[in-house]
Amino acid sequence: MTAGPQTASASAPSPAVPAGSAGEGRSARLGVGLRLRWGLLGATALTASLVAGLAIGPASLSVGAILADVASRLPGLHVGHRLDPLDAAVLWQIRAPRVVLGAIVGGTLASAGAGYQAVFRNPLAEPYLLGVAAGAGLGATAEIVYGPPGARSLLIAAAFLGALLAVAAAYALGRSLSGRDVSTLILAGIAVSLFLTAVQTFLLQQHTQSTTAVYSWLLGSLNSSGWSEVLLVIPYVAFSLAVLVAHRRVLDVLRLGDEEAEALGVNVARVRLAVVLAATLGTAAVVAVSGLIGFVGVVLPHAVRLLIGASYRVIIPLAAAFGASFLVLADVVARTALSPAEVPVGVMTAFIGAPCFALVLRATSSEAL
Amino acid sequence: MFRGSSVWLAGLVAAIALAAGGCGSGSNAVSSSTSRGAGFPVSLHGAGGVTVIAKAPRRIVSLSPTSTEDLFAIGAGSQVVAVDDESDYPTNAPRTKLSGFQPNVEAIAGYRPDLVVISDESPASLAPALRKLGIPVLVNPAARSLGEAYTEIEQLGLATGRHEQARHLVRRMKSQIAASVRSVHGWGRGLGVYDEISQEYYAAASGTVVGQLFALFGLRDIADRAPDPQGLGYPQLSAEYVVAANPDIVLLNDTVCCGQSAASVARRPGWSKMTAVRKHTIVALNEDVASRWGPRTPNLAAEVARAVKSAHAAGL
Fold first, then answer.
1. How many domains does chain A have?
2. Global pTM exceeds 0.95
3. CA distances (Å), B98 to each of A158, B63, B83, in order?
């Protein structure tokens, strides 16, 4: 794979990479300074989006008042003054957890997507590939239809279990068909997804009064989230990200092909299982609390790859950082574009993301995919 | 993977279209009658075209919960042989497995009806299919104003030979609603109200029938600040907006379906600081009453009056 025509944005800060160099991609030889610089950019983007997410929203809280409230809560300092209790509740119990959850969901989907693309060596792989979406959708629908009314924690548990069971079924089916062929596994995932979607549609048709609740969940939303959801997903998400980051070097080796990787001493089947398991666990957890939010998992890793390079050593952590920033900003638009009405954030991600991605594609080589 | 996604997407689009069609496409139900008194035949000009009813129907099938309530309230219950699976009121209505959403023409025809009453939530293909079998069909779209609801009741009166009872019912509904409005002595003027349709913060704006009830009480609907380009009247609000708008009165329409109550909403993030929670001005409604514009609508007006009174008692 050649690096393709270098663009200003990709090559300008890159003294370590001679323009037009061939080989396994720019980032494989990223200098320490350059990696630091991209790391800093990722951290800056994340911080900036979190601040924007906290400062902007349908409730009219001025930035000055928010800053004064933050200052008044810093221990030791005796500056600033508190917001009145209602505004403080809006800021810290509704807006803040929503922003944090947006970051967690976006970061998890993007890093899990990068992991899926690596182990399947397929640029179109996304974290919903093996049935997470269909399984979670069926779980959520079944809970809404048959469960006790209004039990949100039960809904989350049902979506989570549905997602895990669906992927387990796809994995078992894929392996039983023909050994370790990657495309068999993908086809098994599609078969399981279609089957579960059919069951879910049937359930919904039998219980039309649940349509609003089910589709509100399916369209993806961070609207009704609080700190409890954040605490709920953190263990799974932390585990998922840790496993992905730990495998980032092995994933680079996997790019050579299964046989070559085996020859280099990588247990391909075990790596694939570990990465799929971790990515699925994280995805299932965030899908359970946020519903289906498309685009982030499939396109964000590519944007990072195009802008920065093809090594998973940088793609995994940066996809997490940029995925988090992206979803936080998309959610800011989702709750302000038609304020005080909501736009489903899953609609916003594709609406904003697709044109941005087209620009990135234009500015870089298509071969880099 | 794109196959999987596209299936999802198709499902979503279909559901949105369904929901939009269900809520928005209420056509001008206002129709006139050319009947001479309660005498038959009558021809009714409704949303589904002209319906000619040769003689007083004795085997009515209703696939609309609102129409079922209307029919029984005007004394035509004895003429009804089957109602759909959602028609749960009155409890003595002959409820069957027939569905208004996924109607089976053969199953409906099996009751040998001489009149089928449907709403606009049934597929558009249903009425022509039944008429092809020679069965008269009356389409009663979801009312978009109290006036439309009254018109539909009177039309059902004409269709069933119960015109006098229907007119009496409408008069009674009007006077009961007016009495509720009078009972609050204008205390509702300027009070903010949030009418929750679902836990996802879908709310009724003042273009809806319940919103028009609010206007009678002088209430200010906080959902009205949301842009509503399609005019559906049920925008989805941001959670933080609902809390920041701090409505004086909260009405819950997600009690039976979704288990919401004054106690459960008080536990939502940030809600403990809201006026309506602190002053106990949250009223849990029966959403079936609040979503059907029929004989029980005066009960809804009475509930709104109760909420206004409790807000007044709390010094709001």
1. 1
2. no
3. 30, 7, 7
Please report the domains of chain B, with CATH numbers, ordered by start residue.
24-174 (3.40.50.1980), 185-313 (3.40.50.1980)
Which of B1, B235, B272 lies nearest to residue A129, judging by beta carbons? B1
- Nearest CB to B227; choose among A205, A335, A338: A338
Query: How far, in Å, CA of A221 to CA of A289, rounded?
Result: 9
Residue A16 counted as domain residue? no
| DSSP letter for each residue of A294-319 | -SHHHHHHHHHHHHH-S-HHHHHHHH
- Please report, for the domain that includes residue A58, its CATH number: 1.10.3470.10
B interface test, pick of A289, A342, A343 with most B CB neighbours within 10 Å = A342
Does residue A27 lie in a domain region? no
Which range marks the domain in which residue A94 is found?
33-368
Q: Domain for residue A5, yes or no?
A: no
* A148 reaches B (C-beta below 8 A): yes
> A263 at the B interface (CB within 8 A)?
no
Q: Is B227 on the interface with A (CB under 8 A)?
A: yes
Partner-chain contact A98 B239, CB within 8 Å: yes
Cα(A160)–Cα(A351) distance, rounded to whole angstroms?
27
ipTM: 0.79
Give the B window 17-36 contacts with A, CB below 8 Å: 18-19
Tens place of pLDDT per residue across chain A (369 aa): 333 333 333 333 333 333 333 334 444 455 677 778 888 999 999 999 999 999 999 988 898 999 999 988 888 877 888 899 999 999 999 999 999 999 999 999 999 999 999 998 888 888 888 899 999 999 999 998 898 877 788 888 999 999 999 999 998 898 887 655 778 888 899 999 999 999 999 998 888 778 888 888 888 888 878 899 999 999 999 999 999 999 999 999 988 888 889 899 899 889 988 999 999 999 999 999 999 898 899 889 988 988 888 789 999 999 999 999 999 999 999 999 988 998 889 888 988 888 888 887 887 755 544
- Cα–Cα distance, A186 to A129 (Å, whole number): 7
Residue A364 lies in a domain: yes
